[in-house]
Amino acid sequence: MSSHREAPEISKDPVADSTDVYAFVSPDKPDTVTLIANYVPLQSPAGGPNFYEFGDDVLYSIHIDNDGDGRAEISYDFEFTTEVHNPNTFLYNTGPIQALNSSNWNRRQFYTVTRTSKDGRRQQLGQHLPCTPCNIGPLSTPNYASLASSAVQDLGGKRRVFCGQRAEGFYVDLGAIFDLLDPRPFADAHAHFGLSKFPQSGSGVNATKNLNVHTIALQVPIGDLTLGGYVGGNVSDPRATIGVWTSASRQRVRMLDSERNNTWSTGPYRQVSRLANPLFNEVIVPMGQKDFWNTQSPDGDARFAKFVANPEVAGLLPGLFPGVFPNLDVLNKSGKVRADLLAILLTGIPGGLIPGFQNYTGKVQADLMRLNTAIRPSTHPSIYGLLGGDLAGFPNGRRVFDDVVAIELRAIAGATYALVDKTFTPDAAAAQVDDGVTPEDLNVSYLGQFPYLGTPSDGFHTPSE
Predict the structure, then answer these.
(1) Strand spans (E) along 14-132
(2) Residue 218 in contact with residue 232, Cβ under 8 Å?
(3) What InterPro entries does the annotation carry (predicted)?
(4) Of 319, 318, 338, the residue nearest 328 (C-alpha)
């Protein structure tokens, strides 16, 4: 959660496990869009001697749909290679790493980024670009923030890229959510299943505090992504809205070389992971179809629409919290489809429902992170995005600080159903349900500039709590 270990098979393959996708108009460079895809979830900072890295045998991609067909018109592909300076030591580094070309850094990663268009044309934007090392500690990585800053690569034409370790920017009370959906702020109202001892209400606990991820971040001009290169300010123009998702793919054949004690891969690539909207596969898609969902293209997501139209969590809330969600209970029992959730997650929100806003991509149902690029960054952002009156926030794209858990829980609880049915009155609790965690519960602050996610926690200083 948002998509950490969300399906049985990908939970066994962390280097290909996409954890979060972010897409937003860059607040400090509003003529550009920033795209971020995180991988390798739940990294303990003290992860030596084999510290975390991208997979040399994984093809990582960020895809853009700009014509509403649920297929990629543009893809940015990232391929990584690892170089070992001295194979005769067990050490990741043999002294302080004070530059990306330091001879003390024994296991370095480099990457190539290629832009592929729908017609198959490929443009290599950068090659043999250096990743950052992991943040090991004050002796090994003594000035990590500066080191990481030097890994931001200029690709020309206002295009920048960064690949490497970052602090986990997603916050969530995993322990409470998966303990039979018992958010700590609402624990006293939980049904408790007749148990004599049970949790009491209290503050949320951020399960991802002090953990790290591996980030692929790209910043490009708006016109690089939109249909026909549209860069206008008309929010109603369909050309302003793009759909974003990420994927990871592996080659079909993997061989073990017993003589060299190594593996190699060959053959065409097969997608093993994808992600757009947070929590989609994690919470909405049922267990038996999660692995299948990860292998599919968004243009086929109509087959999963029934799980959005009647989400399992919405059906559970009235029973788990007796008397708290009576209106939601009536809505559930009416059998009406959740047109609000279908719009938010699968088609985008059409014009006319929210004043001054739309991110509708058409009738094709596809799980995409939809971003209306004509909406400028907010001068007073709300972590609750659209629910907080902030049109620049989730589900209009997603910024690194947006509280997507609270937003989606509230939407599922009925807070957004009145947009499509004016006769419906959301329960009072629908606007308040929350896991009790905010950016204040992070150990590391976000950055005010690209790549926006903060300096990763290091293994020496990070508490073991």
Answers:
(1) 18-25, 32-43, 58-65, 74-84, 107-117, 122-130
(2) no
(3) DUF4331
(4) 318
Question: What are the residue ranges spanned by the domains of the chain?
Answer: 10-441
Return the DSSP state at 88. T
C-alpha angle 360/364/369, rounded to 5°?
Answer: 50
- Report the alpha-carbon distance of residue 230 to residue 371 in Å, rounded: 13
Does residue 318 have a cis bond before it (omega within 30 degrees)?
Answer: no
Evaluate the omega torsion of the peptide bond into residue 322 and state whether it is cis, within 30 degrees of 0.
no
∠ CA 451-177-9, rounded to 5°: 70
- Alpha-carbon distance of 349 to 331, in angstroms, equals 21
57-81 core/surface letters (b: 16 or more CB in 10 A; e: else): ebbbbbbbbbbbbbbbbbbbbbbbe
pLDDT at 462: 76
Whole-angstrom distance, CA of residue 38 vs CA of residue 57: 17
pTM: 0.95
pLDDT at residue 399 above 70? yes
C-alpha to C-alpha distance for 74 and 52, rounded to whole angstroms: 29
Residue the block writes with tokens 């049904």: 191
Give the per-residue SS3 of 179-220. Answer: CCCCCHHHHHHCCHHHCCCCCCCCCCCCCCCCCEEEEEEEEE
As a whole number, mean pLDDT of residues 404-433 equals 96
SS3 405: helix
CA distance 36 to 117: 19
> Tokens for 234?
């008309």
3-state secondary structure 301-351: HHHHHHHHHCCHHHHHHHHHCCCCCHHHHHHHHHCCCCHHHHHHHHHCCCC
**CB under 8 Å to 430, separation ≥6 — which residues?**
325, 328, 410, 413, 414, 415
What is the C-alpha separation between 375 and 237, in angstroms, rounded? 11
Q: What is the pLDDT of residues 289-335, one digit of tens each?
A: 999 999 999 999 999 999 999 999 999 999 999 999 999 999 999 99
Question: 397, exposed or middle or buried, with CB in 10 Å at 0-12, 13-18, 19+?
Answer: buried
- The tokens of 279 are what? 């929590």
pLDDT for the residue numbered 280: 92
